[in-house]
Amino acid sequence: MSTPVLELSGISKTFGAVRALSDVDFQVGEGEVVALLGDNGAGKSTLVKVISGAHPADSGGTIRWDGRPVSINSPSDSQKLGIATIYQDLALCDNLDIVANLFLGNESLHFPGTLDEVEMESRAMELLDSLSVRIPSLRVPVASLSGGQRQIIAIARSLLGQPRVVMLDEPTAALGVAQTAQVLDLIERLRDQGHGVVLISHNMADVRAVADRAVVLRLGRNAGDFPIAETSYEEIVAAITGAADNPVSRRSERTASPVPATEDK
């Protein structure tokens, strides 16, 4: 197996007396979609924030990038490595158009104080074309876009920094069927272009549609790493709920002891 782009080993994170992560291992390779699953409170958001630099991990664990140890102590550390994170709120400005949102904070300038609108629009068209995204106009306010289109713009904006790993936090939450299909198609295109994708989701249908592996967290610990093609829905759910650790004996119809018939009197 090739060296993962991003590999975390023995990662822990505490907040006062609360231990949110305990010795968690996680990795993602180039051209791979890894789903990060778990119930509420499992530690998914904390792990994402450790990777993104929002919450540096406690001492003791190791983070490797292309096999070499690195430190992620801030969002800028994460971005410099080549990690992009798209949170659920998307951080888009509804009153600005698509081009302005794509280049927000990274505007092209003719000279100080003057925006190069032609250059930015040209780069925006090139970027969206590379993702096979069709938007009628790049100059419409983001507020007028559908939920799926807004998610796509947020993902596209993250790609301007040419990241190697893209983390998506619940990208299809509250989207309709057609909009969800748009986002899942984009995730597959990211994989085809060689990006490592981390998909945080509660939607097992989405996970089974695009993910190569599923890493399950439970109560801040690893509960399983499953190849999607070789794993049943029931096995993943059992890991999420803890049923895999606490099997309940169940009698099938074939093995159940017959119940004596009540004699009529």
Automatic annotation (TrEMBL):
Any Pfam family hit:
ABC_tran
Domain (ABC transporter) spans 6-244
The cross-references to InterPro entries, in alphabetical order and at most eight, read:
AAA+_ATPase, ABC_carbohydrate_import_ATPase, ABC_transporter-like_ATP-bd, P-loop_NTPase
Q: Which domain of life is it from?
A: Bacteria
A Gene Ontology molecular function term of the record: ATP hydrolysis activity
UniProt-annotated stretches for the region Disordered:
245-265
| Entry protein name | D-xylose transport system ATP-binding protein
The alphabetical list of record keywords is: ATP-binding, Nucleotide-binding
SMART domains named in the record: AAA (SM00382)
